[in-house]
Amino acid sequence: MNNTAEITQIEDAEGYIASICFKTGPPLTVGVEIEQLVHVADHPHRPLGAASLTAVLCGHEPQDGGRIVLGPGGQVTLAAWPQAGLERLHETVHAELDRLDLLVTRGGLRLAGLGIDPHRAPRRVVDSRRQRAMAGALARRGGDGRVLMYSTAGLRPLLPAGPPEDLEARWAAVHELGPPLLALFANSPVHAGRDTGWASTRMRAWYALDPSRAGAPRTAPDPAAAWARHALHAPLLYARGPAANWSVPDGVTFADWIGGALPRRPTFADLDEHLGTLYPPVRPGGHLEVRYLDAQPGGDWFAPVAVLAALLGDAATIDAARELAAPAAGRWVEAARYGLTDAVIAAAAPPLVELALRTLERDGLPGPLLEEVSGAVESRFRRAHML
Predict the structure, then answer these.
(1) Count of other CB atoms within 10 angstroms of residue 379
(2) Rg over CA atoms, the chain
């Protein structure tokens, strides 16, 4: 594919998106992106400087594959390469996190392990033309764009799309499991010194975005075609160009751009850029990129990744998980606001976790890792009961 080629037909764009959004079949690898807020160790209210952050990382690259990415609010993301199995993923990611934590600690900083900054108001740390264009576009749609860009951190499991014949069920299941798992691992109740009254303030900020950007396409027999249509009819945030101003008129979609709404025709590179500005609960980028989980402290990232991977492990488990999650399906706002104090979600979460643990044991996850997952989940349930 020539990414500089112009797109003149909607069908060409739809076909391109459908060809890259779900990589079905083997290898069935599991990955994760771990985003972390960064604080000055002894003064977490102090603003973070881009120069100090880049000096601390000083070109650090993961030894076992992957990459380190700096977010606009100074977030540090470890994007680990997908691995063939949970045990291997646990080994490589924990080693990389240990190295990253050592670098950050030596620089007088610390990783926060929270889904939203509890101390600081939103503030840009890392600057780029892309970030400025995004910030300007989101600002025109409300103040939560600044919170999203500069104050939040998420945990993003990358799960296999699986066999082609299972894709429709997997795509539906990963959404239906969302509210119970969002609630179970909600980790952002305080922002900028204020208790917000939400278990996941990070997700509250996402919900404030335009549903065409942050919402999910309707379940359909052909998820790839449905996602392509959804993506093309989402408004542009910006359009790259030689001029300093990348802004576009409000409401112009990528489909409109193909139809001539802007002075030049879009290219496939523009389409790739546009796809990266869509933030649904699950984004198909080859893998199923789950985006509804808050960042977790320390090594607690493994439990939600393992639970999700187990519940999507095979067709029979998917069917059982969907049945258990059905009463809570669609309760996204309730999950983010009330967490496990929502009665419907509180009833659905424990049997889902039990199913996941049984599946992990059946599939041979080593005992210490199984205990790690079980212990992390039990602590979440205990904390919920204390609220």
Answers:
(1) 12
(2) 20
Rounded distance between C-alpha atoms, residue 176 and residue 332, angstroms = 10
Q: How confident is the model at residue 352 (pLDDT cuts 50, 70, 90)?
A: very high
- Tell me the per-residue pLDDT of 139-165, one tens digit each, with 9 for 90 and over: 877 657 899 999 999 999 999 999 999
Instruction: Give strand pairing partners of 6.
Output: 267
More confident residue, 332 or 26: 332
Residue 82: pLDDT over 70 = yes
The model's pTM is 0.95
Alpha-carbon distance of 359 to 235, in angstroms, equals: 41
**What distances in angstroms separate CA 328 from CA 144, 160, 342, one per listed residue?**
26, 24, 10
Handedness of CA 321, 322, 323, 326 (dihedral sign): positive
Q: Which range (94-98, 330-334, 383-387) has the least confidence?
A: 383-387
Integer Cα distance of 383 and 325 in angstroms: 21
DSSP bridge pairs for 284: 288
Beta bridge partners of 78: 34, 68
Plot region of 251 (φ>0 → left; ψ -120 to 50 → alpha; else → beta):
left
Asked if residue 204 lies in contact with residue 198, where contact means CB atoms within 8 angstroms, the answer is yes
Give the three-class secondary structure for 32: strand
Cβ distance 212 to 361 under 8 Å? no
The residue assigned the tokens 């258990």 is 324
Contact between residue 369 and residue 86 where contact means Cβ atoms under 8 Å apart = yes
Structure tokens at 77: 């993301």
Tokens 């509890």 appear where? 118
DSSP string, 157-182: EEE----GGGHHHHHHHHHHTHHHHH
Helix, strand, coil fractions of the chain, as percent rounded to 5: 50, 15, 35
DSSP state, residue 68: E
What residue has token string 């985006």?
291
Separation CA 58–CA 52 (nearest Å): 10
C-alpha separations of 35 from 38, 70, 71, 135, 201 in Å: 10, 9, 9, 19, 16
Q: 3-state DSSP call for residue 70?
A: strand
